[in-house]
Each structure stands twice: as structure tokens, then as C-alpha cells.
Amino acid sequence: MAILTLTIDDQPVSGTETETLLEVARQHGIEIPTLCHLDGLTDVGACRLCLVEIEGASRLQPACTTRLQEGMVVRTNTERLQRYRRTIVEMLASEGNHHCAVCVSNNHCELQDLAYTVGLQYVRVPYLYPAKTLDATHKDFVIDRDRCILCSRCVRVCHEVEGAHTWDIAGRGIGCEIISDLKQPWGQSTTCTSCGKCVLVCPTGALFEKGATVAEMEKRTEFLRYIVNARQRREWNPDLLHEE
Amino acid sequence: MKPRLATVWLGGCSGCHMSFLDMDERLIELASKVEVVFSPIADVKTFPADVDVTLVEGAVSTVEHEEMASLIRRRSRFVVSFGDCATTGNVTAMRNRFSPDEILHRAYVELADGDPTVPSEFTTIAKLLPKARPLHEFVRVDAFLHGCPPTADEIWLAVSSLVEGRIPELPNVYQRYG
User: Fold this and answer.
1) B133 touching A, CB under 8 A?
2) DSSP β-ladder status, B51-57 and B76-82
3) In Å, how far is B61's CA from the nearest CA of chain A?
4) What is the pLDDT of residues B145-173, one digit of tens each?
5) Which of A112, A115, A122 sits opposite B136 (nearest CB)?
6) Residue B96 in contact with partner chain A when CB distance is under 8 A
7) B144 in contact with chain A, both atoms CB, cutoff 8 A
8) Which residue of A109, A118, A120, A121 is the best one to mutate when testing the B interface, meaning the one whose CB has the most B CBs within 10 A?
9) Which of A14, A57, A98, A171 is buried deepest, with most CB atoms within 10 A?
10) How far apart are the CA of B87 and the nearest CA of chain A, in angstroms?
């Protein structure tokens, strides 16, 4: 496979045509913030946090779904991109009901971490305080849609890795919500295997284990690399379960 | 003349003020640097004029809070959102999915031990705004202290620069919601 060379943030880097800008950037120690991306799941470019500038392209492109091209000149952290990323986090904050102080995922939340990364002092758009629903009908888990940012990791892990496809996104625009089966209570789902993968990949406290209280819900996503590696390469490498 | 410091308690649990008191012996140093002209922990009835720095705890949740926010803004050089409720609404804003009438009914009728009655407007009960909202949605805010509550170290750092007339540049470690 041909090796392609390109420039990311003035740094010469190389990779193959099957790799994405995000993968290659991270291999070279260039951090681009993400929320919907998770190693082991198909990238969908949903959260728009990894948007980058590519010289010669009129529009910004998500690094997670953009493949390498020879000679690309990419910028990942310009003043404009920083401003857009902050705005995205502000809109995520205003469109949900995120009460960090009393959340199961307080201090273990990717959205909360991102707020500091982008320097979110306060939210400039009005908070919407939407009326969202909570479903605690499953015997082990709860979905609280107040904290959901619609990254669709749960939908993808359930479909791609577990193969059950219990989760989906219903609705349009700001009214979108995660539903189980055909919008039936999760506890009555005929497809859910209760494997808990959706809970572990959820970046916020939207999916959590019953019994967890404030700041107790820590998500571990290492299992995903272990399973995906085993499936694709038929190698069962326990080290993957312990690497950070 | 020493800088004039005020602290105000709107729709919050007073946890931010407890954290203020957690500055412990630094309070003595602070007292030598500033004059505390208004605070829930001082016996002052009306918000004075010519305040240099006002820390505002809590969300704007009642009509009285809204009037107070506007008064604070007119009379203060620096207004600071003091903690998560002032900055985001936080726990105080969890009531926002219900109407004020539903909330009063829940508190004074459904959960009443005896004589279940919603207090009339002639009593001292605060008149709730339709939603509890962060301070900066009502008035211009100059600085934000995150945390539920902000740590004593954060408050110390912020107040120390504010009384010298500077907007604090807090290290990232203090920029934590929750």
C-alpha cells in the first residue's frame, strides 16, 4: 500500500490511504478533540468537534471521516476552529440538562472534560431546559436522556459489535432522541441482550448502571479494542484490556 | 480606601458561601485587604452603592432575585458568578421542567404534614420566575467561578486579583463544573 505524505499543523506526517486524518494526527501526537469517535466503532462525523481546515478545500472537514490524500496541508487548531469547538460545546450544554454536580458521571464525563479543554467559561446561548425522558425499566441499567448528546456510540456499539441493534435515533433535529426497539420501554425490549456495552461507551452519564450515585459511574472502553481486535484478527490479546 | 467586597446569596444552597468560609485563616488576611460591605454572613439590610467586587451565589430563581441582580449590576464594578448555580443554573435549574404552580403544589400540598395549602400572595413566600436561570442571562458578568462549590483556593485566587482590579486568570485546574 502506497505511503502518503502530508502536513498537519506544519508537521510532516505519513500514513496510508485507508487511514483517516484523526488516526494519523493522533499517531503523531497531535490531539484533536472528539466526542462521537471511539476506537473500534465506525466513524460517523456526528459531533463536528474534530473539524479541521484543509488548504484548498472550501469547507471544514471532520478529521474522523476524512481519508489521507497526498500533499494535504491540514490545520487542526486555528483560532477559528477553537471558536467553533467552543460553540459546539455551548450548544450541547444548552440543548440538554447537564447538572454536573449531581450526575452519576461527575468527574468521569467526556463532555465535562471537553468543556475545560475548549475553555468554556459560560454558555452564551440561552439554556433551553428541554423536557427529556428517563427510562429505568431495564433491570440493570438506566437511560437519562437529559444527559444524552446524541453521539450515537450506543447505537453503533449495539449494532456493530453486539449485533442486537436495540438502539436507534428517532425524531428530527433538536427533537432527536435515543429509543429502544420501536420506542418501547427498554425493559420490554425483545432485542436487548443486557450486555451493557452501550453503558460503557456512553461518554456522559446518559447511560448508567442502576445503583450508581453521584460521581460513581466510571466508563471503561478498553473492552471494545479487545473484542474488535479478536474479531478482525482472531487474536485474543488480554493486554488490550489493560492499556489506557 | 480599601476595596469594597460584597457577597450575595440568590437561588443556591449556601454551599459556595460555606466554601468561602473554608478559606480559614486567609479570611483574616482578606479582612485586612477589603471591607465587606454586604453579605448573608453580615448584618446589612440593603445592598450599598460603590461596591468594587460582588460574588453572586445561586441561580436567578425569583422575582426578588431578578431585581437584586439588576441592583448589584448597577452598584458593582465587578460582578462574579460564584459557583455552578450562578454560572449554569445547576441544581436550582432542575425544577425547570415543572411550572411554579406544580412546584408549590408539590411542596405545600402533596408533601404537607398538615393543613395542605399553597401560601397566598400575602405571605412572604418568594414569587418564582417561570424558570431558574444563570446570572449572565440577566446582567453582564465579569468573571465566572466554576464548581459546586468552587474550592477555597479558587475563591482566594479570584478574590485576590479582583480586589486589585484584575479579572482573574484561573489555571485550568480550577475551571471545573461539578
Assistant:
1) yes
2) parallel
3) 14
4) 999 999 999 999 999 999 999 988 887 76
5) A122
6) yes
7) yes
8) A121
9) A98
10) 6
Asked if the structure places residue B110 within a domain, the reply is yes
Q: Do A129 and B91 touch (CB under 8 A)?
A: no
Q: A131: distance to nearest CA of chain B, Å?
A: 6
Residue A2 sits at the chain B interface (C-beta within 8 Å): no
Q: What does pTM read for this prediction?
A: 0.92
Answer whether residue B177 is part of any domain. no
Residue B71 lies in a domain: yes
- Report the C-alpha gap between A165 and A119 in whole angstroms: 36
- In chain A the domains, ranked by start, together with CATH numbers, are 3-77 (3.10.20.740), 83-241 (3.30.70.20)
Question: Does residue B23 sit within a domain?
Answer: yes
Contact B137, A126 (CB under 8 A): yes
Q: Residue A53 phi/psi, 5° resolution? A: -95, 130
Quick check: A90 and A191 in contact, CB under 8 A? Answer: no
Looking at the structure of chain B, the number of domains it has is 1
**Structural domain boundaries, residue B103:** 4-169
The three-state secondary structure class of A98 is coil
| Predicted confidence pLDDT, tens digits, chain A (244 residues) | 789 999 999 999 999 999 999 999 999 999 999 999 999 999 999 999 999 999 999 999 999 999 999 999 999 999 999 999 999 999 999 999 999 999 999 999 999 999 989 989 999 999 999 999 999 999 999 999 999 999 999 999 999 999 999 999 999 988 999 999 999 999 999 999 999 999 999 999 999 999 988 988 999 899 999 999 999 999 999 898 886 5
Assign residue B18 the CATH number of its domain. 3.40.50.700
A123/B contact by beta carbon, under 8 A: yes
What ipTM is given for this predicted complex? 0.90
- List C-alpha distances in Å: B122 to B31, B113, B114, B119, B125: 40, 22, 20, 8, 8
